[in-house]
Specification:
By secondary structure, the chain is an alpha+beta fold. It is built from 8 helices and 11 strands. Strand 10 and strand 11 form a beta hairpin. Helix 1 runs antiparallel to helix 6, helix 3 packs across helix 5 and helix 4 packs across helix 5. The chain is elongated, with a radius of gyration of 22 Å.
């Protein structure tokens, strides 16, 4: 007997808008997503962190009809009954979006958005705790003892989930391989109670980075432009936080308006004007700005 659970992974924007992805990008994404989900399932089956991708997987990824403006990867997890001694209510946990929350946790943890990641960890623990509740209610113990058991189990489960996510950094990099190349974002399934999580280009760059980075919310910043690299859709700007006004950092331009010959970026550069950027910023652990990902810009009067 098997239990079947379904979900969707989506890539949006750029080439994915036309319901396709380059084979190289799609291949890397499939390998990464399969490793993340199959490792989660195997971890829950065995109660131990999977350092390598399981040879046998209960996850099947299939490509369905793409939605408008995106490239979707519907997935099916086939779970054999009786293989899950650690979490007896495992299938119900999967139906409660456990996979989506785990993928989001890994992406946000490595993507410099750790406070958001913790919200998904709490949701996973609640989902798994709900499946264990009946076994605790069947025990004839002191209420305090049962409470202690639950707290200890919750901390143990937290450590397992976090350890498994940390072991999947390489897989997360593969899963977001299309982002910034042939897609502008990655997401898991429909809107969830915690909100729809978009792994945008700033988050994907943080996942791919060798060093630990933090990623801001959408913000604005006034800067002066040192130069523009058209082919790379990148410009270099002076760091407004540098008192010497000599330090430069790159701005990756995800704004579709940059494709127009007379865009605000080139206008401000040619006129030596200050430009107001809207987007997300990534910072190094020491607080220095690494990159700004611009989704919009306006000229200022400065």
């Amino acid at each position: 007997m098997t239990d079947v659970v379904r979900g969707i992974f989506s890539y949006d924007g750029l080439v994915a808008t036309h319901h396709r992805l380059p084979a190289r990008d799609l291949g890397a994404a499939l390998v990464g997503l399969d490793a993340i989900v199959s490792s989660l399932i195997k971890m829950l089956e065995t109660g131990s962190i999977q350092r390598k991708k399981p040879r046998e997987t209960t996850l099947i990824l299939t490509v369905g009809e793409p939605a408008e403006g995106s490239f979707e990867l519907p997935w099916i997890a086939q779970i054999a009954a009786g293989l899950l001694p650690l979490f007896p209510q495992f299938a119900e946990a999967l139906r409660s979006n456990l996979v989506e929350h785990f993928v989001n946790y890994a992406m946000l943890w490595f993507g410099g958005r750790r406070p958001e990641a913790e919200a998904h960890m709490d949701k996973m623990l609640d989902i798994l705790a709900a499946g264990q509740k009946l076994s605790y209610e069947d025990r004839e113990r002191e209420r305090a003892a049962v409470y202690d058991d639950r707290q200890q189990e919750r901390e143990h489960t937290r450590a397992l989930l976090h350890g498994q996510a940390v072991a999947l950094h390489g897989a997360a990099k593969l899963a977001v391989y299309p982002v910034g190349r042939s897609a502008s974002s990655f997401s898991t399934g429909p809107r969830q109670p915690l909100g729809h999580v978009l792994v945008d280009e700033a988050t994907a760059d943080a996942i791919r980075a060798k060093e630990e980075l933090s990623v801001s919310e959408v913000m604005t910043m006034d800067v002066r432009i040192e130069g523009i690299r058209d082919a790379r859709k990148t410009m270099f700007v002076y760091d407004p936080e540098d008192s010497a006004q000599s330090r430069l950092f790159p701005v990756v331009i995800a704004d579709p308006a940059f494709a127009h010959p007379s865009n605000v970026y080139k206008h401000c550069y040619a006129g030596g004007m200050v430009i107001k950027l809207t987007g997300k910023m990534t910072r190094y652990a020491d607080g220095l700005i690494k990159t700004f990902h611009a989704i919009e810009a306006t000229a200022t009067e400065q």
